[in-house]
Amino acid sequence: MKQSPFSLEGRKVVVTGANTxxxxxxxxAIAGAGGQVIGIARSPLDETAELIARVGGHLIPVSCxxxxxxxxxxxxxxxxxxxxxxxxxxNNAGIIRRADALVHGEDDWDDVLQLNLKLVFxxxxxxxxxxxxxxxxARIVNIASLLSFQGGIRVAAYAASKHGVAGLTKAMANxxxxxxxxxxxxxPGYIASNxxxxxxxxxxxxxxxxxxxxxxxxxxxADIGNVAVFLLAxxxxxxxxxxxxxxxxxxxx
Length: 253
What we know:
CATH architecture: 3-Layer(aba) Sandwich
Radius of gyration: 17 Å
Structural class: alpha/beta
Number of domains: 1
Shape: globular
Order of helices and strands: EHEHEHEHEHEHHHE
Helix content: 40-55%
Number of helices: 8
CATH superfamily: NAD(P)-binding Rossmann-like Domain
Distance between the termini: 43 Å
C-alpha cells in the first residue's frame, strides 16, 4: 500500500523546546503521524515522553541550554552524526519579555533575539549543511508568530525577532530549496501556552483578544502540531518560503 503523503513513518525530526506548549504539541503530533521525535530542551522532557508514548511513539530526549548557540549547534551536529539522516528540524524554542518600549532593557532585548532568531539561523545552517552534504532531502519548520506581521503591545524585542524569523525563512528557502531542503514557517495565533499565560490571566485583555478571533477560542498546541506535520510531510512538497498563519482567523478580521 502506498504511504499517505501526510505520513511521517520512518522519519526523524528534531524539535527544539519540546518540553512544553507549542513545542510539546508539535512533538506529539509528529509521533502520532509515525515520526521519531528527538526533543531538545533545557527542562525535563518527561511529560512529553509520556504523551508521545500514549500515541505509540518513543521520544529521544536531549538536554541542552539553547540560549548558548554554540553549544546548541554542537549538540545538533552530534545528534545528526548519531541519528542521521534526520528528515526535519522544527525551530520552536523561544522566549518573550514584556515591557514598554521606553524601558525595555538591552539585556532582555539580547536574550530574546539570541534565542528567537540567532538560534534559528545557527541550527538551520548546521542542519542544512549536513543534509546537503548527504544529498538528503529535508524540511525545516520555523515557528514565527502573528507578530511576524504586527507590532504587538509591550513586546518590541519579540516582534522584532519574529519579523526576523519570517524574513529568514524566506531567505533560507531561496538558497536551499534547490538542494531539496524546504523551509517554511508557522505563525501561531493566540495559543494557550506558557507564553500567553499573562494575557489569559488578564480578564480585559483576554476578552478583547477573543472578541477579534472568528473561531472564538484560544488555540491549543495540537492546532499548531497538525500543521507542522503537514509541512514536514510529502503533502507540502511544493511549499517553500511560506509563513502560514494558524490563528483562528485573527489576521483576516
